[in-house]
Predict the 3D structure of the following.
Amino acid sequence: MSLKQRLLVLVLSTVCLVWLAAAAFTYWDAKQELEQVLDAHLAQASTLLVAQSTEELDDLEEEKAPLLHKYSRRVAFQIWEDGDKLLFHSGNSPTTPLAGSQTGFSDITIAGQNWRVFTSQTKGEHDHRLIIHVAELKEVREQLANSIIANLLTPLWFALPLLAVLLWWAVATSLKPLVKLTLAIAQRKPDNLSAIQLQAPTEVHPLVERLNQLFSKTKALIENERRFTADAAHELRTPLAGIQAQVQVAQAALSAENRGHALAQALQGCQRASHLIAQLLTLARLESNSVTCFETCDLQELAKQQISALAPSALEQGVQLELAEGQPVLIQGLATLLEVLLRNLLDNAIRYTGAGTEVLVRASYTDQQACLSVTDTGPGLAPDDLAKITERFYRPADTTATGSGLGLSIVQRIVELHAGSLQIQQGHYGRGLCVNIYFPIQT
């Protein structure tokens, strides 16, 4: 069911229910009021008869009053003397008493007809007691009430279809902006991710804004993927070409020494390509997914584990790894990503600082944040290189160590996923490099 149909069904159903409730209340209220009016009319008519009772009534024999109007059949009256002599009555009243002698309203059934009666008493000449009954047939009352109520409700019967048509027009007109938005999106080409320009009501603005935000994010993601693919192809071309050249050298080598050296170089190229591919896959996963299912992680413990894992490689390169003592530093994050972050920082430090250098890792709390710091005593970086070091595939010009140029790009992306901040600066006393990562602490 479309939104338009749903709105029409709900609105018309609500209107019909309200209309029926109003009609029922109108019927009940009008009937009650009419009953009160007719009862008052009976009481008033009885009062008039009492006021007009004269001594001549004592001399009347039983007589019938003429019916002077078509509605006069609706009202009947009787005047009894001492409760046993019918002095005067209307032509449509029975000859039997319409009620007893007790004053007030009463209901009675005579000859299959239901009457509503008002009884009053007065004294005539010679102290005769006159009993006056004024009555109406209940059937006539019902007919009169139904006629009046039908006249009240008849306009509503005509108003309901008209209201339905007007509601249909109002709903159709109000939903035109959504129809235009639907057509605008349906007619778009797949590569058209520009913002939607559409005049829409205030209620539709959030939807248009969210769609424009989605288009913007999708466009940025596609551009990132294109750039990533181009960069990856470019970076993989170099180690593959090197491997191919070394294999060709090995094939053409005349001595076992030359052949072994070429194969060793080819193996080193394969290792570099394998490392590059692993880094590319890691970065691709980080770009395509956002992490939301965080858990409590201890930066101190994670740093200890990664230092233990990379200690043999650091020892081989002549680099000393050290973890500053401290208490557990807890944050909300994903342990596997934080391990990748630490591994990339430590691997970069081992690769680029050189033999005889030190790498210090420290986890602490500072300014309502958790801070992970990796500081080395290596040669450091020039200011121009510091500004570009987190770009993908960027490597300083004077770098001799092998690498892919993706380590710090991966670190930065992991920091972003943890809503943290990355700060890279010169090390203490102008020596080496200091990487500070700040994580928010959830209270």
